[in-house]
């Protein structure tokens, strides 16, 4: 079973290939992916690496956590599973006047109404 690793505080120059080659020193890498911004096409500064075994993953974590890459100390640890029900966008309803009674901003949204 593969083990997923979170790699944070990456310099924007890091690519999928360079990420994979750095972790390959410690064992077989199933996948390596730097997360990219959809709109700009630029790195978000973090990524994920899947290692073939938990032992090789732990060896990579122990060796690479805190190492300086292009002047930035990277964070390397086990990835946490995604939380159920999260959709990437706001799901708390945002700000509405109904949650803030007596403020005087109308009946909803981000403004309007009486002053």
Describe the structure.
With 115 residues, the protein is α+β, with helices and mostly antiparallel strands. The chain has a domain at 3-78: RRM (RNA recognition motif) domain (Alpha-Beta Plaits, 2-Layer Sandwich). The protein has 2 helices and 6 strands. The strands form 2 sheets. It has a 4-stranded antiparallel sheet with strand order 2-3-1-6, with helices on one face.
Concise structural overview:
By secondary structure, this protein is an alpha+beta fold. The protein has helices spanning 16-24, 54-64, and strands spanning 3-8, 29-36, 43-51, 68-69, 72-73, 75-78. The protein is built from 2 helices and 6 strands; from the N terminus they run βαββαβββ.
Q: Please, what is the CATH homologous superfamily of the domain at 3-78?
A: RRM (RNA recognition motif) domain
Q: What distance lies between the first and last C-alpha atoms, to the nearest angstrom?
A: 61 Å
Q: Main β-sheet, in a few words?
A: 4 strands, antiparallel
Helix content: 10-25%
- For the biggest β-sheet, the strand order reads 2-3-1-6
Count of runs of 4 or more consecutive helical residues: 2
Shape field:
globular
CATH architecture of the domain at 3-78: 2-Layer Sandwich
Keywords: Plasmid, RNA-binding
Biased composition (Gly residues): 103-115
Biased composition (Basic and acidic residues): 80-89
InterPro entries: Nucleotide-bd_a/b_plait_sf, RBD_domain_sf, RRM2_NsCP33-like, RRM_dom, SLIRP/GR-RBP-like
């Amino acid at each position: 079973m593969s083990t997923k690793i979170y790699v944070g505080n990456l310099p924007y120059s890091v690519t999928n290939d360079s990420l994979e080659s750095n972790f390959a020193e410690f064992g077989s890498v199933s996948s390596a992916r730097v997360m990219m911004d959809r709109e700009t096409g630029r790195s978000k500064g973090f990524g994920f690496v899947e290692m073939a075994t938990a032992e090789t993953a732990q060896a990579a974590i122990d060796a690479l956590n805190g190492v300086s890459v292009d002047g930035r100390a990277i964070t390397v640890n086990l990835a946490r599973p995604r939380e159920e029900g999260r959709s990437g966008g706001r799901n708390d309803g945002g700000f509405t006047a109904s949650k803030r009674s007596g403020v005087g901003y109308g009946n909803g949204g981000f403004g309007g109404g009486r002053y």
